[in-house]
Amino acid sequence: MVSLEDCRAMPKVELHVHLEGSIRPETVLQLSKKNNIALPYDTLDGLKQWYQFRDFPHFVEVYVAVSKCIKTPEDIEFIAREFLQGQKEQNILHSEVTFTASTIKNHCGIPWDEQIDALERAIQFGKDELGVSMLLIIDIVRGDSPEAGLKVAEMAVSGIGRGVGALGLAGQEAPNQALPYKEAYEFAWANGLPVIPHAGETQGAESIWEALNVTKCQRVGHGIRCLEDPALVKTLRESQVVLEVCPTSNVCLTPINRIEDHPIKQLVDEGLQVTINSDDPPMFSTTLSDEFAQCSTAFGWDTDKMREFSVRAAENSLLSGEAKQGLLNKIRR
After folding, report:
1. Which residues share a beta bridge with 110?
2. Is 201 a catalytic residue?
3. Of 103, 247, 270, 308, which has the highest C-beta tally within 10 A?
4. Tally of CB atoms within 10 A around 332
5. Domain count for the chain
6. What is the spatial distance between Cα 314 and Cα 95, in angstroms, rounded to a whole number?
7. Contact in structure between 273 and 233 (CB atoms under 8 Å)
């Protein structure tokens, strides 16, 4: 068993975490007051009570409401800097962060060029002042129109070289919800951007099959329900597709009752490429260090096993060349 203290000290890489979902409750209140945004609760205890999610739609409701508290490019830069400082405190050397630019544009009125300017400033701050790196995954929200999805892909492509590393697909899963955005994926591929979809979180194996077939992905956000289909498990194992597993998030939003019941150990035992992630840490009262420590305790994984998760995350990050090798060297040391 690896202690929480040792998990905090261990150099780590995180592939699945949402920027808006990482805003601390104290910061949510600060932004809501600054920008005159009404929330159901105006105290820290009340906000934490609101974060006790009943189901996935309730989670989406809270997530969108929190996002609406962001009103200026300075707010974006602030939350991104605060996020990076939190990652630094945990010795998370590199993060690949999903950001829903379309929600910020549609609900908050901040144009994409001002969003990416703010994010780029925060990324530079992380590099220069903290010694940590961040790449962005700009995601399409399931249920939006194909035209809206294409606009997201265009935004993502315009951010190449400024911190954007991939196009994502998130939101509430439903049958055949990946296919409508094929034109967006094709635009991303043509410009060198991979697609990293969420799938197999609240829907079954068919959602993962669709993601694989339609997005040509090499990483899947969550993917835990692949175990329902042995043929899918075999395909994932042979193709070395990486699963970005978020244990506490799954306990909060799916029928899994506790970490000890999470299928992550079975996924590992099946020889799948698994990474450990925090998803929306303050919303689930967790951190990446907590996820590492809880998994170590629940499944008897030692320090070497936990280090494997960070090495795998680094190997399958969006970094390349010297940047990726440098990251791997730091983790292995």
Report:
1. none
2. yes
3. 247
4. 11
5. 1
6. 10
7. no
Tens of pLDDT along 264-277? 999 999 999 999 99
Q: Which of 14, 77, 120, 201 is catalytic?
A: 201
For residues 244 and 16, the answer to whether their CB atoms sit within 8 Å is yes
Give dist(CA 212, CA 236) in Å, integer. 9
Domain CATH for 74: 3.20.20.140
- The whole-angstrom separation of Cα 308 and Cα 211 is 26
Q: What is the pLDDT of residue 192?
A: 97
CA 136 to chain centre: 10
Torsion angle of alpha carbons 181, 140, 256, 260, nearest 10°? 110
Per-residue pLDDT reduced to its tens digit, 295-324? 999 999 999 999 999 999 999 999 999 999
Among 282, 316, 279, 314, smallest CA distance to 16 is for: 279
Q: CA-CA distance, 90 to 9, in Å (whole number)?
A: 7
Q: Note if the pTM is more than 0.90.
A: yes
Which domain, by its residues, includes 323?
4-332
Coil, helix or strand for 232? helix
Residue-level pLDDT at 26 = 95
Kindly tell me if the per-residue pLDDT of 285 is higher than 90. yes
User: Residue ranges of the alpha helices (H) in the chain?
Assistant: 4-9, 25-34, 44-50, 56-67, 73-89, 101-108, 112-125, 146-158, 182-190, 205-215, 230-239, 247-253, 264-269, 288-299, 303-315, 321-332
**Sign (positive or negative) of CA dihedral 326, 327, 330, 333:** negative
Given strand 133-141, what is the order of strands in its sheet? 12-18, 92-99, 133-141, 164-170, 195-199, 219-222, 242-245, 273-276
Reported as a pLDDT band with limits 50, 70 and 90, residue 333 is: confident
